[in-house]
Amino acid sequence: MDSSKTILRFSDCTLAKLEDMFQVKQTRTLAALDSWLQRQAEVSDFEKQILLIFQERLITNVHDWNEQELSLHFIGPIFSLVNFTTAQFNLFAERSFSGVVKDIELKGEPDGMVASGFREPKKPYFCFQEYKKHKDPNGDPAGQCLAAMLVAQELNETKYPMYGCYVMGREWYFMALQGRDYAMSEPYTATREDIFDIFRILRALKQIITELIEQNS
User: Which class would CATH give 6-215?
Assistant: First the structure.
């Protein structure tokens, strides 16, 4: 990277800052997000029983868990149950990646991402950020997630959508970015029946990424 370039870390990004710097615009609806959230994916009875066990653990502890405990005891097991490990792509955590968007280097280590590659991430398709509390003094999780999605978009050099998600305690928010338009869902509350939708949406994401990689192979 050119040392003279402005560097902006994901952790310093907010939605307002990204909108000003990169001319991204939030829309109330986005076809890519709508089709993802509405896509059907099977959730077996066995998986529902496991999800209820995870949910009970969340209900008991969510008020007291810190971010790492939330990830270890709830978010990680959910992602493991979906199983994003394939020969073509994998789920990675806190891996450094960066890209230049409009002459500004964006860089950081998102809490999670699904990317092509098995041992090391190559092209990211999904970026994830987690926070414990609804209002956190350490930053804007939506902005951090969107910043990572902008880099993913740049690295892929394609027109297809980038996907993202951030979690604040019990609430999950899903995001999509297409061109310079982005949208985010209303919260899905993991301590309620929404937990089954959260799992379905993540499983649908696995289907979407599989299809994208097959189309571009």
Answer: alpha beta
